[in-house]
Amino acid sequence: MTSPTVSSRDLPHPVRDEIRLEGVLHALSDPMRLRIVRELAGVGGELSCSHFDLPVTKSTTTHHFRVLRESGVIRQVYRGTAKMNGLRREDLDELFPGLLDALLDAAARQVVRGG
């Protein structure tokens, strides 16, 4: 029996038990990545990479999405030609109850303060 072929468009993600707190905190320590997560949390669904208008180069944007995906903060899937991004809220809430909400609340308060 042969193993199923993995498409070059399938992106690697950690399974829930592989998600580490230090990886999540590292991913969310960057202002651009935190901005992406805040937008995803705000819509509660998926957004395409092209939706995000970040003040960085395309290669830097790609790097930020990869860090978020590899840390287990987001899930990325191709839908046609678009790479869609969704927050892995259920996984994060199960592993680290209250963490995501606390970080998002703190980030929102920082924006209000002008930071």
Topology:
Blueprint: H1 21-28, H2 31-43, E1 47-48, H3 58-71, E2 74-79, E3 82-87, H4 89-95, H5 99-112
Antiparallel strand pairs: 1-3, 2-3
Helix pairs in contact: 1-3
Please explain how this structure is put together:
- The protein is built from 5 helices and 3 strands; from the N terminus they run H-H-E-H-E-E-H-H.
- The protein has 115 residues and is an alpha+beta fold.
- The protein has one domain: Arc Repressor Mutant, subunit A (Orthogonal Bundle).
- Strands 1-3-2 form a 3-stranded antiparallel beta sheet.
- Helix 1 packs antiparallel against helix 3 (58-71).
- The longest helix is centred in the middle third of the chain and has 14 residues, at 58-71.
- GO terms for molecular function: DNA binding; DNA-binding transcription factor activity.
- Residues 13-107 form the HTH arsR-type domain.
- Keywords: DNA-binding, Transcription, Transcription regulation.
- This is Putative HTH-type transcriptional regulator YczG.
Key terms:
three-stranded antiparallel sheet, 115 residues, alpha+beta, globular, disordered N terminus, 49% helix, Arc Repressor Mutant, subunit A
Short summary:
β2 and β3 form a beta hairpin. 49% of the residues lie in helices and 12% in strands.
Flag low-confidence runs: 1-6
Question: Percent of residues in helical segments?
Answer: 40-55%
| Main sheet record | 3 strands, antiparallel
Q: What's the order of the H and E elements?
A: HHEHEEHH
Q: Report the total helices.
A: 5
At CATH level 2, the architecture is Orthogonal Bundle
Q: Which CATH class is shown? A: Mainly Alpha
GO molecular function: DNA binding; DNA-binding transcription factor activity
Pfam families: HTH_20 (PF12840)
InterPro entries: ArsR-like_HTH, HTH_ArsR_DNA-bd_dom, HTH_MetalResp_TranReg, WH-like_DNA-bd_sf, WH_DNA-bd_sf
Keywords: DNA-binding, Transcription, Transcription regulation
